[in-house]
Every structure is written in structure tokens, then in C-alpha cells.
Design goal:
This protein has one domain: Nucleoside Triphosphate Pyrophosphohydrolase (Alpha-Beta Complex). Helices cover 15% and strands 41% of the residues. The chain contains three helices and six strands, in the order ββββααββα. Strands 2-1-5-6 form a four-stranded mixed sheet, with helices on one face. A two-stranded antiparallel ribbon has the order 3-4. Strand 5 and strand 6 (99-107) form a beta hairpin.
């Protein structure tokens, strides 16, 4: 996908995770997330195999189905919120022994206070 084709692109927040396993030291990670709004007629590619797995366009109902074993189990928790929140959030996922045990969404600090100038979110390209 060419994001320059997006009608709108915005920073949606961070998805973070902590993994606790009885047989290993704790592990933490995260990823930055962005939402792109495409024209309904935008060309999308066919399914692709990537090092992370299959990359495929699916309906939102399929992706957010908590009983769908083909979707990472935290996505149905954060994605519906991410699509309705217009300020960036941190979506925190806590795993214990391979099971998602807790999920929380919290506001990120006002980045304009940290960087010294306003951060435009949802800017039209």
C-alpha cells in the first residue's frame, strides 16, 4: 500500500505488551500504530506471505472476532477502541504463560508539551 494515496493518515498510539512466563525472565515490547483512510476504490494487493505471517485484507468483523484463532488475541481488544478514539492512546496488553490476562487503554501524554510545538493529528495528505 502506498500511504501517499491515503485520504488521511494519523498516529493512533502505541500497542505495548508484557509477557510473564514462569520459566523465563519478563519480556516487554511494543509497536507504533497508524491509521490510514483510503478511497473506497483504492487498489489493494492480494494476500502476501511475510516473515511475520500472512498479510491479508479482511473485513473488520473477521479481524475483531475474539474467537477467531487466525488473529492475534490482543487485536480484537485494541482495534475497535483505536478506530473510535481520535487522540493517541497506549493499548497495554499483559500476558502470563501465553494467555492474555489483562488489557487497558490509557491516554498518552500531550506530545506537544514534550516536543515544544503542536503535533498535527489526522492531517490530510
Amino acid at each position: 500500500m502506498d500511504v501517499s494515496q491515503a485520504q488521511e493518515l494519523r498516529f493512533a498510539g502505541l500497542v505495548t505488551w508484557t509477557i510473564l512466563d514462569a520459566n523465563a525472565p519478563p519480556v516487554s515490547g511494543g509497536m507504533y500504530t497508524f491509521l490510514a483512510h483510503l478511497d473506497p476504490d483504492a487498489q489493494i494487493w492480494p494476500d502476501r506471505i511475510t516473515p511475520e505471517g500472512l498479510l491479508s485484507w479482511k473485513k473488520l468483523s473477521w479481524v475483531c472476532d475474539r474467537s477467531n484463532p487466525a488473529v492475534v488475541d490482543n487485536i480484537p481488544h485494541f482495534l475497535p477502541l483505536m478506530l473510535t478514539q481520535f487522540t493517541p492512546q497506549e493499548y497495554c496488553c499483559s500476558y502470563q504463560d501465553g494467555v492474555l490476562r489483562a488489557f487497558d487503554a490509557r491516554a498518552l501524554p500531550d506530545l506537544s508539551q514534550i516536543i515544544g510545538f503542536p503535533l498535527t493529528i489526522g492531517r490530510k495528505l
